[in-house]
Design brief:
Blueprint (H helix, E strand, L loop, with lengths): L6 E5 L6 H12 L5 E4 L10 H7 L6 E4 L2 E4 L1 H11 L13 H16 L2 H6 L3 H4 L9 H17 L13 H14 L7 H11 L2 H7 L12
Parallel strand pairs: 1-2
Antiparallel strand pairs: 1-3, 3-4
Helix pairs in contact: 1-3, 1-8, 1-10, 4-8, 8-9
Length: 219
């Protein structure tokens, strides 16, 4: 695959997806030139054959590099790390094998667990106002699980998990922001960590991206 082949990242129109976030930030951190294209989930564009059959999973994000299509955010991050390796491009996963394995564990866990919290504090609530009920017992238990794990992972005063930035830092901060931006109190060291990540230029580029005025729910 030629290194200068065009790169396209397909995302959703409201810029709230944590999975698009992860890929967008990885591309920015790799200092790669890329184009973004929008797939309307509300109109079912992700299920149309032209997109579905290339992405395979009919999901966003999808990365297109030349003629190669790839979906699933963790796979996309891994692909970028392998195809655009250090030292020519900054790392987005740790160099140390143990740290890299832990980063992958964190990324996989965030994507597969904490469902009640993700349902009751969806990422659109981070960027669009919406009435929110108090957390249910199940969502509170998920929030407690998140905070307990984050407390173990993040050292006092640390602004990254492994000494140097990696995409797992951004992913963990993003899920913590589900609580922070909805007014929930979290321990100071976790707030410091999340705030530092939120100010990173690659993250700001996503957070400050233009969005439609109103959020349109989708399945």
């Amino acid at each position: 695959m030629p290194g200068d082949a065009p790169i396209v990242l397909y995302g959703e129109p409201f810029w709230v997806s944590p999975y698009v976030f992860s890929c967008f930030v990885a591309l920015r951190e790799k200092r790669l030139r890329f184009e973004t294209k929008i797939v309307s989930l509300a109109r079912g564009e992700h299920r149309e054959a032209g997109y579905r059959d290339r992405a395979l999973t009919a999901k966003v994000p999808a990365l297109v590099h030349g003629e190669f299509w790839l979906a699933e955010s963790s796979a996309i991050v891994e692909y970028l790390e392998e195809v655009f390796p250090a030292p020519d491009h900054p790392r987005v996963l740790p160099a140390d094998p143990h740290d890299r394995a832990r980063a992958r564990q964190i990324m996989a866990w965030i994507r597969s667990d904490l469902l009640p919290l993700r349902e009751e504090r969806p990422t659109n609530s981070m960027f669009y106002p919406r009435p929110l009920l108090p957390l249910s017992p199940a969502a509170q238990a998920a929030a407690d699980k998140l905070l307990r794990a984050a407390d173990l992972l993040i050292a006092n005063g640390a602004t990254s998990l492994f000494g140097a930035w990696c995409v797992a830092d951004g992913d963990l901060a993003f899920v913590l922001q589900r609580l922070i931006r909805n007014g929930h109190g979290i321990p100071a060291k976790l707030r410091i960590f999340a705030a530092a990540q939120w100010e990173r230029p690659s993250v700001r580029a996503f957070v400050e991206h233009d969005r439609p005025r109103a959020f349109e729910p989708y399945d």
